[in-house]
Amino acid sequence: MRQGFGIYRYAVALEMLTGIVSMGALIWLCEDRRLRLVVAMAVFAIAELTTVYPDWGRGANPSAGIRPARYGDKYVDVRVPALPANSLVLIPTPEPVAYFIPFATPSARYLGIENNFLNLSQSNDLADGVKRLMRKPGAPKFVVNVGEFNSDRLNGLLARFGLRLDGGFCEPIRSNLEEHALSLCRIIDN
Q1: Same structural domain, 124 and 40
Q2: What total of structural domains would you count in the chain?
Q3: How far apart are CA 190 and CA 187, in angstroms?
Q4: Dihedral sign, CA of 88, 120, 101, 164?
Q5: 56-100: per-residue pLDDT in tens?
Q6: What is the pLDDT of residues 131-179, one digit of tens each?
Q7: Of the chain's two ends, which shows fewer C-beta atoms within 10 Å, N or C?
Q8: Is 71 domain-assigned?
Q9: Which ranges in 51-167 belong to alpha helices (H)?
Q10: Tell me, what CATH number does 118's domain have?
Q11: Range of the domain at 182
Q12: What's the per-residue H, E or C state across 87-112?
C-alpha cells in the first residue's frame, strides 16, 4: 500500500484538474449552450458509472481467507489512544508511520529517531537533544512499536536512556492506512 500511496500522491493534482480540463474542452468543442449541457450530463453519467475506487491493498484473497476491507466514512481514519499532557513519544523506525501524529494528543512531543535522517549512534546537536529529552525526568514517556512486538529490540534501544518498557502497557493505534500494526507502549525508568 505504501508504494501505491507514494505514487498516487503525485497523481492527485492531475485528478483534481480533470473536471476543469473536461469542462474547458467541452466549452471549446460545443458552441451551443444546450448541447454543452447535454454533453456535460452525458460525460458526468459516464464518469459516475465507470469510476471504481482503487484497491490499494484492500482486496480480498479468498485462498488466504482475507475479506476485503471496507472504506469508512473518512478517507483517513486514525484512532490514537489518549496520552497524558506533555508526553514524549519516541518513534524508532525508518517506516513512514508519522501519519498518526495529527490525530494524537497535540501537547505531546514526537521524537523520530533511528530513521534515515537520525541515528542515536550519531554525535550531533539533534541526536544530543533527543538524548537529553529522553533522560529528562518528569514527562510521561512512550515508544511506538511497529509491526510485531519485539521487547528485546525496544528495551535495547531504551537502555541507552536508562529507560525500559512498562511490561503491561501497550495500546494499539488503529488506522485504515496501516501496513504494519502500530502501538504505543509506556516507558518507565530502570
Answers
A1: no
A2: 2
A3: 9
A4: negative
A5: 555 555 555 555 555 567 777 889 999 999 999 999 888 888 889
A6: 888 888 888 999 999 888 888 888 888 888 888 898 767 899 988 876 7
A7: C
A8: no
A9: 125-135, 151-158
A10: 3.40.190
A11: 78-189
A12: CEEEEECCCCCHHHHHHCCCCCEEEE
